[in-house]
Amino acid sequence: MRARTLGIFRRVTNFIPNFKTGPTPARKNWWRPVLVQIIRLVVVGLLLGWLYAWGAPLIYRDKSAPGFWLGCAHGALMPMALPSLLMQKDVPIYAVVNAGRIYKIGYIAGINACGFVVFGLSFWKPQRRARV
């Protein structure tokens, strides 16, 4: 009988909240990490936009007809043009005079490679295997 009473008492005490006396824990500032991420994004965007505006004349030359490899480079660099375009700089994102279909295939391959690096690798978290 005594063991049964102790078992019931233990179950009831689990439902009673445990009020601790003392100072309340400090609230964490949720906005601070968000603000830091926004500042980082703006700084990186401005830096990439400036670099793209500086390097675009070196990559997009008028006298040459770029082929597959320059198409890959143009496609990979195309997303970096967004900050420059938002800063109202008219930068090229595509070579108008090109080698035709082979340039376009390289351009698409470059865009896909850039997307893989940005969205594939930056969000990839390797799963840790439990050692037995």
What's a quick, concise take on this entry?
The chain is mostly helical and 132 residues long. The chain has helices spanning 2-15, 31-59, 68-77, 81-86, 101-121. The longest helix has 29 residues, at 31-59.
**What's the structural domain tally?**
1
| Number of helices in the DSSP assignment | 5
The largest β sheet comes out as: none
Secondary structure tally: strands: 0
State the end-to-end distance: 44 Å
Structural summary, described in words:
The chain has 132 residues and is an all-alpha fold. The protein has one domain (35-132). Helix content is 61%, strand content 0%. Helix 3 packs parallel to helix 5.
Task: Describe how the helices and strands are arranged.
Elements: H1 2-15, H2 31-59, H3 68-77, H4 81-86, H5 101-121
Helix pairs in contact: 3-5
Brief descriptors of the model:
single chain, 61% helix, 5 helices, 132 residues, mainly alpha
